[in-house]
Specification:
Structural class: alpha+beta
Number of helices: 3
Shape: elongated
Order of helices and strands: HHEEEEEH
CATH architecture of one domain: Roll
CATH class of one domain: Mainly Beta
Largest sheet: 5 strands, antiparallel
Distance between the termini: 113 Å
Radius of gyration: 31 Å
Strand order of the largest sheet: 4-3-2-1-5
Helix content: 25-40%
Number of strands: 5
Length: about 120
């Protein structure tokens, strides 16, 4: 029997020849988008008058002094300042949006009365 020499290819050369499989997994979206934080900070800095509607349909007006993960502190001119748990807030919006809505309604009613 003759001695046979085993020829092994160089692995680096094989890697270069094969198309690279770059399997990129989609990254999971972050839990925190910081949108809530940005919104609160913006309203706090401007002391924007806010309307807070609670789950029991109670309406509170004031401006946000501070917030944390579970609560906001609402300062009010008429009445005591309140610490409101976020889970009892249905929604909130700027008080100016309510005024704009009332102006639009008044203009519509005035336009209908002229007809």
């Amino acid at each position: 029997m003759a001695n046979r020499k085993l020829i092994r290819p160089d692995m680096n050369e094989l890697k270069k020849e094969l198309p690279s499989r770059s399997v990129r997994r989609k990254q999971t979206p972050p839990e925190q988008t910081n949108a809530e934080e940005f919104y609160y900070l913006k309203q706090m800095a401007a002391k924007t008058p806010m309307v807070v509607i609670l789950v029991n349909d109670e309406e509170l007006r004031g401006w946000i002094e501070w917030y944390d993960k579970g609560a906001i502190k609402l300062n009010r001119t008429s009445g005591p300042n309140l610490l409101i748990q976020k889970h009892v807030i249905r929604y909130m919006f700027k008080e100016e949006e309510l005024r704009q809505q009332q102006r639009r309604t008044n203009k519509r009613e005035a336009g209908e009365a002229e007809r």
